[in-house]
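If you are new to this repository, start here. Below is one unmodified record pulled from the training split, so you can see the exact layout before writing a loader.
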Amino acid sequence: MASRKSTKLRIPHSQDDCELVGVLEQLAPEESTQGRKIALILHGTMGHKDYLFQKRLALRFPIDSFRFDFRGNHESGGQRTQGGFAKDVEDLVTVVSYLRNTYGYEIDVVVGHSRGSVVGMHWLCTSEEGRRARAMVNVSGRYRMDRIYDVAEAYKEQWDAKGYYERTVTVARQAVVERIYPHDLEVFSQWNSAIVWDKFPDQIHVLTMHGLVDKTVPTYDAIIYSRALGARTPGTHSLHLIEEADHNFTNRQDEVVDCILEWWDALNQGRLKTGILMTGVRGKL
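And here is the target side for that same chain:
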């Protein structure tokens, strides 16, 4: 029996002069990939392809997967901006096209964390290939984009003095300096997350996960996604809130992966129903 294989890919960008770097996980690398289903795993702001639960999930997921760094993040080229959702969607389109044309892959499920969720859901709403997917996992996804201004007070002093806010964050154990301009937050706040009400495909099953002590994206945004996506059919929406979990599910990564895999099994067994995930299961309370 063939063993699984991890391959680093460098994908030329179709729109801009930058290279997108990602990792392809294959369960049966010796077999043809033509028409094979694949999962896409998308990171959030100032994250990377191996951030948080992403790599752990990829190594346990029961189908092939691809996770990559959006432009300007970690190993990928180009520049990122706080409000650059449209550029992120371009990156995703480029990746999907490469996986299709080079390997013959078909996207089965998109798993996103935070910004990656927002980008993934937009792609599902606006592309023909996205509309043929079966599933979406929305972890810590933001709906009320204007709530980004909740952090603006912390930026004001530097904005007034320099015209931008500068911060140093650690990405993949490397110090990265980011500049945030007032225009970035304006563009960010205007991104149309409400597209999911009218354009999200009816047949796609969705799992929304959110921590109850998320201080980055309010937990109530998960409720809004439940309302937006819970009335579709035959697609379902499952909501799972995790007590004492923050935005990045610190020290809870394996729990996130376990939940996603449990939901995935239920999907493939035809057991999903719209509502709270694991309704009727007492478990450890």
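Two things worth knowing about this chain: The chain is about 30% helix and 25% strand. The first helix runs from residue 54 to 60.
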